[in-house]
Write a structure and sequence with these properties.
The protein has 133 residues and is α+β, with helices and mostly antiparallel strands. The chain has one domain: Aspartate Aminotransferase, domain 1. The protein contains 4 helices and 6 strands; from the N terminus they run ααββββαββα. A 6-stranded antiparallel sheet has the order 1-2-3-4-6-5, with helices on one face. A hairpin with a 3-residue loop joins β5 and β6. The longest helix has 18 residues. 32% of the residues are buried.
C-alpha cells in the first residue's frame, strides 16, 4: 500500500490502519466510502496526510492551498463530518449536491454528517463525473 506524497506528519499509516483507528460511529461510513471510491475509480487508496484517503494523482498545483493538492478524488473523516475532495472542484458539482441529500458545499469540498444523509446512487454519479472530468 502506497503512502501519498503529502504524508509527512509523523509515522505514515496505511488506509486500513487509518480506518481501523476510527471511532465505530463513523468507521462503517468511512469503510463503505473507501469501497465506493475504489469501485468508481478502479484505484487503490493512499493516505494524504493523517486523515485524507485519496485516489489517483494529478499534477500538483490544482489546489495549492489544500493538503489534498495533487489527488484526483478523496475523502476526509473529521469528528462530526465527512468531506469529499474532488479534483478541479467547480460550481457544477453543486448541481449534484442538490440531488445528493443533506450536504454542505464548501469552497473546495462537499461535506455531510453521515452516509445516511446521502443518496448513494447520486454519490457514485458525482464521483464518476469528477473522476472522468
Amino acid at each position: 500500500m502506497r503512502i501519498g506524497p503529502a504524508c509527512s506528519f509523523g509515522k505514515p499509516i496505511t488506509v486500513q490502519q487509518f480506518l481501523r483507528r476510527l471511532p465505530h460511529t463513523i468507521a462503517s461510513d468511512a469503510t463503505e466510502l473507501a469501497h465506493i471510491f475504489r469501485e468508481v475509480t478502479g484505484h487503490e487508496p493512499i493516505m494524504w496526510g493523517p486523515a485524507i484517503v485519496g485516489y489517483g494523482e494529478t499534477k500538483p498545483g490544482v489546489k495549492p492551498d489544500c493538503l489534498c493538492d495533487g489527488l484526483e478524488v478523496g475523502f476526509a473523516v473529521r469528528p462530526n463530518r465527512i468531506f469529499l475532495y474532488l479534483r478541479r472542484y467547480t460550481s457544477y458539482y453543486e448541481e449534484f449536491a442538490t440531488r445528493l441529500g443533506n450536504v454542505h458545499c464548501g469552497r473546495t469540498c462537499i461535506s455531510f454528517a453521515s452516509l445516511a444523509d446521502v443518496d448513494r446512487a447520486v454519490l457514485r454519479e458525482l464521483l464518476a463525473f469528477a473522476w472522468h472530468e
